[in-house]
Amino acid sequence: MRLLLAEDEKSLSKALVAILEYNHYSVDAVYDGADALDYLLNGNYDGAILDIMMPKMDGITVLKEFRKKNKTLPILLLTAKNEVEDRVVGLDSGADDYLGKPFDTKELLARVRSMLRRHGALTDNKLSFADITLNRITFELSSPKGVVRLGSKEFQLLEMLMSSRGRVVSSEQFMEKIWGYDSEAEINVVWTYLSFLRKKIAALSDRASIKSIRNAGYTLECDDVSEST
Question: So what CATH class is 126-222?
Answer without folding.
Answer: mainly alpha
